[in-house]
């Protein structure tokens, strides 16, 4: 007679799923807050200040998006 040995199922419990979803939500909230803060600070600079750091006003949103996605 042959026996099949399989490892125990690694199902994720309901608590772990809820925690995982909450962690994902909180991470997205932090990214959104960082994006808003970055755009607010860069948007508050004068054109001269932006020119000094090599950023055009047109690039602020993309720059903020790139900055928040790296984290």
Quaternary state reads single chain
Radius of gyration: 23 Å
| Terminal residue distance | 55 Å
Arithmetic mean of pLDDT: 88
Proportion in helices: 55-70%
Structural class: mainly alpha
Estimated share of beta-strand residues: under 5%
**Largest pleated sheet:** none
Q: What is the number of strand segments?
A: 0
Shape: elongated
Supply database-style keywords:
71 residues, mainly alpha, 66% helix
Layout of strands and helices, then pairs:
Blueprint: H1 14-43, H2 47-53, H3 60-69
Could you describe the 3D structure shown?
The structure is a single chain. This protein is 66% helix and 0% strand. It has 71 residues and is mostly helical. It is elongated. The model has no long low-confidence stretch (mean pLDDT 88).
Outline of this structure?
By secondary structure, the chain is mostly helical.
């Amino acid at each position: 007679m042959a026996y099949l040995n399989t490892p125990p199922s690694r199902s994720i419990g309901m608590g772990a799923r809820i925690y995982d979803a909450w962690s994902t939500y909180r991470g997205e909230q932090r990214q959104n807050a960082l994006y808003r803060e970055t755009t607010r600070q860069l948007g508050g600079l004068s054109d001269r200040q932006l020119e000094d750091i090599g950023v055009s006003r047109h690039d602020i949103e993309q720059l903020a998006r790139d900055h928040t996605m790296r984290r």
